[in-house]
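In the design runs reported in the main text, the only information available to the sequence generator was the tokenized backbone. The following block is the verbatim input for one such run; it is reproduced so that readers can re-run the procedure and compare outputs position by position.
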């Protein structure tokens, strides 16, 4: 099968009438229609075999994850997904594998009304790079730079479960099979919090999606906003889904949830007076949220336990070149 047959068979789909994509796969460029008053939100994320995923991962789950991590960036900005491109490097053509990849990819794309509008296909080490395009009303995007002193700090969903699964894969932790299966799904098929990001527009003052670990990603928000924060490590540890089902000491729970990574939850800030609006947005989006701290003037991140005592533990975030 040649390059063009491959594209036609697995990645070219019928045009969607009245969608944002005016011209999709097949020409030199794709064309995207933007509604008046909207800004285009753009983000790229690359997944490299051995670095971002294990070679044994199911193809459909990989297709899901490649798009999910990109949609997560749109979610963090409060942008609505419109379309994406896929740049694919493959060592060889395995039709069953490609069919699986396309199935996982399009299932998530269709769930978000996000169309594949183009890409590139080449032979090489297995590598997937997706660029997503979303829309957000001019000036309404949630940014890392908007946190203000006195704001409360929130996080969506559950943290640490993807890292728990990775530690089991690495043989450093052992947990019951059902706990592992659930954690593995969180690692391989993260849920981008798109609906929550949209619902938080006009409520949240800043947001980021958690890919490298809460403590590190929060650091980006604090620096961009010129503020600091105190974080309740035990409130964060309480979000670990596996917590009730497996005995992990407090330090391990904190490590998984504060420095685990691959969570794709949203961390965001909102004025203290808007807590009820945050809760309502979360209910509307169908995802739980937890209040985990407060923004302060003193720069840096102070991690405390439920009693307010400083937690003496380092929470290094993931760094590809660190
Ligand atoms: P060009 O040579 O102009 O770069 P290509 O031959 O690479 O174009 O691609 C032909 C068409 O197929 C283009 O519209 C391109 O966007 C699309 N395409 C190529 N690879 C993919 C892919 N993996 N997924 C979706 N569309 C793709
Ligand atoms: Mg090309």
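Verbatim output:
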């Amino acid at each position: 099968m040649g390059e063009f047959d491959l594209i036609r068979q697995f990645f070219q789909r019928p045009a969607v009438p009245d969608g944002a994509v005016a011209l999709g796969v097949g020409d030199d460029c794709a064309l995207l229609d933007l509604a008046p008053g909207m800004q285009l939100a753009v983000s790229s994320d690359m997944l490299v075999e051995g670095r971002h995923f294990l070679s044994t991962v199911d193809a459909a789950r990989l297709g899901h994850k490649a798009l999910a991590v990109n949609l997560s960036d749109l979610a963090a900005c409060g942008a609505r997904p419109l379309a994406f491109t896929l740049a694919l490097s493959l060592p060889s053509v395995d039709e069953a594998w490609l069919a699986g990849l396309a199935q996982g990819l399009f299932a998530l794309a269709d769930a978000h009304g996000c169309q594949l509008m183009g890409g590139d296909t080449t032979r090489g080490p297995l590598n997937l790079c997706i660029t997503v395009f979303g829309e957000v009303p001019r000036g309404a995007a949630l940014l890392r730079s908007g946190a203000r002193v006195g704001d409360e700090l929130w996080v969506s969903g559950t943290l640490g479960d993807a890292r728990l699964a990775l530690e089991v894969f690495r043989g450093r932790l052992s947990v019951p099979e059902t706990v592992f299966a659930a954690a593995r799904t969180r690692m391989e098929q993260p849920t981008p919090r798109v609906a929550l990001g949209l619902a938080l527009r006009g409520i949240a003052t800043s947001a980021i999606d958690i890919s490298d670990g809460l403590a590190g990603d929060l650091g980006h928000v604090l620096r961009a906003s010129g503020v600091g924060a105190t974080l309740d490590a035990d409130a964060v540890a309480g979000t670990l889904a596996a917590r009730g089902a497996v005995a992990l000491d407090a330090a391990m729970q904190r490590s998984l949830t504060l420095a685990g990574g691959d969570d794709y939850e949203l961390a965001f800030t909102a004025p203290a007076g808007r807590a009820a609006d945050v809760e309502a947005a979360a209910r509307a989006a169908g995802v739980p949220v937890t209040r985990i701290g407060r923004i302060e003037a003193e720069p840096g991140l102070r991690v405390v336990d439920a009693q307010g005592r400083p937690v003496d533990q380092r929470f290094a975030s993931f760094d590809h070149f660190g």
